[in-house]
Amino acid sequence: MADQLPRPPAIITAPPRRVLFLCVHNSARSQIAEGFARALAPADAHVASAGSEPRALNPLAIEVMNEVGIDISEQRSQRIDEVAWRDADTVVTLCGEAEGICPAVAGNVRRVHWPLPDPAAAPEAERLVAFRHARDEIRWRVASLWPRGE
User: Fold this and answer.
1) Is 72 a known active-site residue?
2) Largest CB tally within 10 Å, which of 3, 14, 16, 150?
3) CA 23, CA 96: separation in Å to the nearest integer?
């Protein structure tokens, strides 16, 4: 489960100003990350998500985000060439397959890899719980991009 994965350290250099969350299908994990980033990032940060083979936004992603008060129902899955990925200062990949499909980015672009299990691949009876686990892990990881000062 996602809660058993080692947690990455907080970003200790400058927080992202233009971040792209990338996953193959851009239907769940990257959409959840985009939703949390829109809620947690500074107002002037640019946030996007995309995929190499986008599919429709997963209804369970919408449901579990609604449970924590974030509405992602207006977000849509996009191909990577539909977003300004070349302008990103940080590219976050959220699945094992995405690390290999991430476009070549400039050397000054921060690459972060979060290889989280696909909650949509869980058995149907466990799927909602899997989405909640993914949501909670993604929330923690996205918050680490913009740590709150004391």
Assistant:
1) no
2) 16
3) 9
Strand order in the sheet with 110-113: 46-50, 18-22, 90-93, 110-113
Whether 102 sits among the annotated catalytic residues: the reply is: yes
CB atoms within 10 A of CB 124: 6
Catalytic hit among 40, 83, 101, 102: 102
Sign of CA dihedral 13, 18, 24, 30: positive
Per-residue model confidence as pLDDT tens digits over 55-111:
999 999 999 999 999 999 999 999 988 998 888 999 998 876 555 665 566 667 888
Task: Tell me, yes or no, if 95 is annotated catalytic.
Answer: yes
> Strand, coil or helix: what is 93?
strand
